[in-house]
Amino acid sequence: MTLQQNLDRARGIKFPTNAVIDGKLVPARSGKTFDNVGPRDGKIVSKVAACEAGDIDTAVNAARAAFEDGRWRNKHPREKKKIMFKLAELMERDLEELAFLETLDMGKPIRDTLSVDIPTAINSIRWYAEALDKVYGEVATTPSDRLSYIVREPLGVVGAIVPWNFPLHMACWKVAPALATGNSIVLKPAEQSPSTALKLGALALEAGVPSGVLNVVPGYGDTAGQALARHMDVDLIAFTGSGEVGRKLMTYAGESNLKRVALELGGKSPQIVFADAEDLDAAADAAAWGIFFNQGEICNAASRLLVEASIKDEFLDRVLKRAKQYTPGDPLDPASVAGALVSEGQMKRVLGYIDTARKEGANLALGGKRVREESGGFYVEPTVFHRMDNTHTLAREEVFGPVLGVLAFTNEDDAVRIANDTVYGLASGLWTANISRAHRVARKLRTGLVWINGWDACDITVPFGGAKQSGFGRDRSLHALEKYTELKGISVTYKP
Ligand code: NAD
């Protein structure tokens, strides 16, 4: 695969633009579209149905009808599994096309969409298909004239609202367990990256998911997203995105039908490197990868690097060497390990944080600028600040870009204090050869995930989600099924 071959292939990619509602591919009722801008070169790649409240209403009604008549939920579990496997198979068949759509929509390198994003999304569909008949109910302890059993039932209509940083991957983290538990779904992709979700909706129909069960409705957040979250007939909003929108969703739920809300929000994740770490090269690899992979547009990005003061300067040198490898290139170039930021707005936001860090007196060790401007795309070079403390804006707010803040600490207590001194609690990591310290510190870190001597070293088998203002509810693992189901206790009284 060469850049030229990929450019040729990209020209042949057909962007899906219609909503998927009640088994049909349809434009917005109003006929309106929005521009889907490709961050690679700033050009419009497609014009997508700009759905609004009326379209959401149609989709929710279709989802409700499908749920009530049981066309999906009452299928034999083996049949549901077969259809979900078929969906995974079709996604595999179209893996390359999905990868190109993701790269062109969102700016991430083609090598990642081909090897990480799309395969991970497929794995989610398969994993929950495999799980769907492996989860049992419970029988309670009762007196001898009674049998009480507890079943998990699907909630009904799930509204899934997802962000642009891993568009298909995040969508499948929600769609797969929601489908596996028998719900109907209305998926609202981010307006910056709607294409792979729309394709997913069409593939689900091809696989045999009955009409109305998986609806995909593109549109802006404050129109389509808000209408979904305020809808009186939606039972759950499963959300990944910013804290700002998460807060609104809780308000909408309170002002409408008290629907359940599950929030996967942002982070300011600390990666702590103790001087006694066994492999400082591996730690430096993880420090760079943890913040620069996906252009830093990762909710669990390792955006605060906490290094024991005695090794800080030497360790920083190792990180800087590796950081340079993430200099952005054309996302379609198979050699690029970093691409464009998702939008001009996001690029300006990131550059704004860089500016603030400078003004607040942090020391710029690397990067700091927009690059590849001639392409028309939105690229920022890997950027590292040090000689800063945890009160700096860069240490407190989520940048969602390739910007690392390096902080020094003096001892273990100091490291834990700085790590926990944040409103977020999504993920954290620590590097040490001292096994007692590793477990002790892991227990003290107030985050949903802790990685010891590795970063992001887990997969679908481990629940993903945060503490504090990083949200509540979990994606991945069997625990995700809890979010999409309600417990029902059934008691039978009989003659002993
Ligand atoms: P965002 O919150 O702006 O948008 C996310 C989604 O919400 C989009 O689909 C958007 O259209 C929709 N939305 C916006 N306003 C809405 C409203 N008023 N009502 C209903 N829906 C609305 O976030 P983003 O900019 O797309 O993504 C970046 C954020 O997502 C970051 O803060 C990041 O940390 C977070 N994120 C978290 C995780 C996680 O799992 N914790 C994963 C990825 C991203």
Main features:
oxidoreductase; Aldehyde dehydrogenase; single chain; Ald_DH_N; globular; binds nicotinamide-adenine-dinucleotide; Aldehyde Dehydrogenase, Chain A, domain 2; 2 domains; alpha/beta; aldehyde dehydrogenase [NAD(P)+] activity
Structure, explained:
- The chain is of the alpha/beta class.
- It folds into two domains: 3-265 and 472-488, Aldehyde Dehydrogenase, Chain A, domain 1 (3-Layer(aba) Sandwich); 270-459, Aldehyde Dehydrogenase, Chain A, domain 2.
- It has 16 helices and 24 strands.
- The strands form seven sheets. The chain has a seven-stranded mixed beta sheet with strand order 14-17-18-13-12-20-21, sandwiched between helices.
- Helix 2 (53-69) packs parallel to helix 8 (221-230).
- The radius of gyration is 23 Å and the shape is globular.
- The protein starts with a helix and ends with a strand.
- The mean pLDDT is 98.
- It binds nicotinamide-adenine-dinucleotide (NAD).
- This is Aldehyde dehydrogenase.
- Keywords: Oxidoreductase.
- GO terms for molecular function: aldehyde dehydrogenase [NAD(P)+] activity.
Element layout with pairings:
Layout: H1 3-11, E1 19-21, E2 24-26, E3 33-38, E4 43-49, H2 53-69, H3 77-93, H4 95-106, H5 110-131, E5 138-139, E6 146-154, E7 157-161, H6 167-180, E8 184-188, H7 195-207, E9 214-216, H8 221-230, E10 236-240, H9 243-255, E11 260-264, E12 270-273, H10 280-292, E13 304-308, H11 312-323, H12 344-359, E14 363-366, E15 370-371, E16 379-380, E17 383-386, H13 393-396, E18 403-409, H14 412-420, E19 424-425, E20 427-431, H15 435-444, E21 449-452, E22 467-468, E23 471-472, H16 480-483, E24 485-493
Parallel strand pairs: 7-8, 7-10, 8-9, 10-11, 12-13, 12-20, 13-18, 17-18, 20-21
Antiparallel strand pairs: 1-2, 3-4, 5-6, 6-24, 11-23, 14-17, 15-16, 19-22
Helix pairs in contact: 2-8, 3-5, 3-7, 4-5, 5-6, 10-11
Bound molecules: nicotinamide-adenine-dinucleotide.
Nicotinamide-adenine-dinucleotide is lined by residues 161-165, 170, 188, 190-191, 221-222, 225-226, 229, 240-242, 245, 248, 264-266, 299, 398, 400, 426, 471.
Protein name: Aldehyde dehydrogenase
Pfam family, one: Aldedh
Organism: Candidatus Viadribacter manganicus
